[in-house]
Amino acid sequence: MSLQQAFRGGLLGLAAGDALGAPLEFSRRNAFIPVYGFSKGGPWKLNPGEWTDDTSMALCLATSLVESGGLDLHDQMQRYLRWYQEGYMSVSGNCFDIGTTTLSSLQRYKRYGIVPAGDPNPQASGNGGLMRLLPVILATWDNPLRLKSWVEAATMTTHASPDCLDASLVFADAVSRVLEGEALQEVLASPQILGGQTRGQAIERVLEGNYRHLDRSELGEGFYVIEALENAFWACWKGGSLKQTLLRAANLGGDADTVAAIAGQLVGVVKGEALLPDSWKQELAWCEKLQVVADDLLDLNQKLRQLPWTFDKLPAASSHSSGSHDADYRPAFHI
Ligand SMILES: [Mg+2]
């Protein structure tokens, strides 16, 4: 499978999972009629194939990376603010849902203009940093140092707790390993954390693979970032097609859209765009735009390969004609 197929599959998997789970968000497990495809309704009263904050924020992050030529944390925050205030990258033209940790970070950024704006408090461990993460991973997956540095930085813009950072680094490791060609089941049998060091305790249960032995009824709701990762890994571990995995994740209820969006990022990269049902591609909101953004991320990834990992942006366009020099580069964001 080509990288283009994998990149497109990951981004479409994210959006499809988000749209499948959206009607079930906040539903108690076993207290709803399962979904078998895109459906309307739910707390946001969306049309079939429309997605929520997970995909909107992922598109903000992806276009920031592409249009900035790399990591620009202020630009990322400004796009998230545009989404919140103006409905940028929203299917409905307005921001109809936002997590509490994300909202407080955007308000902090708006007031002080400082990045990272994420709350490091262990209590602030929502899944908003993880749910949108794929674009950063796709841009940097083949360079472990850049991958770790950018994943941490892009998570901390809004989510800086130990559990949030641990979850992002474990997820990024999994996606990069499948992109390298490792089998999904192998990756899920032995999850690892990028850099080898955890910040909190809770991620240990994911690293030990406990989720593989859990019954559906034993999984949490998924609003907490460790549970979201656990539920998504569980849905992928159970195997089957791309469609089956996404439906299994969405039909957990709870934070259904986000758990399915996270599962969709991983299984989408593994299976590729071609394995997403054609009828879903026709119904999925902004499908063509998502494909173009995935292709743009692949282009960025190829260009970044030419740079040492410590450079967080491509050279400015003007420097190509005048010859590049040090002033055209910015140092990487270091934690
Ligand atoms: Mg959502």
Question: Overview of this structure, please?
Answer:
- There is one protein chain.
- The chain is mainly alpha-helical and 335 residues long.
- It has one domain (3-27, 41-304): ADP-ribosylation/Crystallin J1 (ADP-ribosylglycohydrolase fold).
- It contains 15 helices and no strands.
- Magnesium ion (MG) is lined by residues 52-54, 97, 257-258.
- Magnesium ion binds next to helix 2 and helix 12.
Low-confidence segments: 318-335
- Helix and strand content put the structural class at mainly alpha
Bound compounds: magnesium ion
Radius of gyration from CA coordinates: 18 Å
CATH class: Mainly Alpha
Going by CATH, the homologous superfamily would be ADP-ribosylation/Crystallin J1
Beta-strand proportion: under 5%
Q: Taking all residues together, what is the mean pLDDT?
A: 93
Cofactor: Mg(2+)
Keywords: Hydrolase, Magnesium, Metal-binding
Pfam families: ADP_ribosyl_GH
Family: Belongs to the ADP-ribosylglycohydrolase family.
Task: Summarize the structure in short.
With 335 residues, this protein is mainly alpha-helical. It has 15 helices and no strands.
